[in-house]
Amino acid sequence: MHNYLKYKSLLKVFFLFILIGNLNKVQAQTDSLLQTLLVDEKIDSQLIAPKKMLFTQQLIWGEKGIFKNRYGNIQDPIDRRKIDLRIRRKMLQLHHSTFKRDKKLTSIRLHKWLAIAHMSGMLATNILASQLENNYALKPYHRAAAYTSFVSLAAAMVVIKF
């Protein structure tokens, strides 16, 4: 009963974090910025290119960035910003596109799981070995961890080889 209450409270905290995360989503840049550029007679240079950018943003969008001379002969800042926003929208869509994976069990996936089991067994073996001097009753667990580690290593090699 105690474990159930513990997991129930953890579940509540988990859902609270999810709720807070969904409420504070970072909104992507929309066309409202472009509309601001088109409507206003006076163009704010901050809307064209912000003065403070991260290092990675400066590499791409800065004064001497990769995309600085990408427009050819286009001199109008509004047209340049339109192109910027189209490129950024495509980059954002590519960044957020979902990858569909097969849920089938493949030899590579099985090999990865066996490698994780092997690594866990190696860690458990070493930790239990250091505690054997103080508590000899841990010897069966140490032996089981060592056997599990060996079997998972052998199985991982067989799976990847054949």
Compile the SSE list and pairings:
Elements: H1 2-23, H2 32-39, H3 45-48, H4 55-61, H5 77-96, H6 107-131, H7 139-161
Describe the structure.
By secondary structure, this protein is an all-alpha fold. It folds into 2 domains: 32-96, no CATH class; 107-161. 67% of the residues lie in helices and 0% in strands. It has helices at residues 2-23, 32-39, 45-48, 55-61, 77-96, 107-131, 139-161. The longest helix has 25 residues, at 107-131. The two termini are 47 Å apart.
In brief, what are we looking at here?
With 162 residues, the chain is mainly α. It has helices at 2-23, 32-39, 45-48, 55-61, 77-96, 107-131, 139-161.
Briefly note the structural class of the backbone: mainly alpha
Question: Averaged pLDDT, please?
Answer: 76
Number of H- or I-type helical stretches: 7
Q: N-to-C SSE series? A: HHHHHHH
Short key terms for the protein model shown above:
mainly alpha, 162 residues, elongated, 67% helix
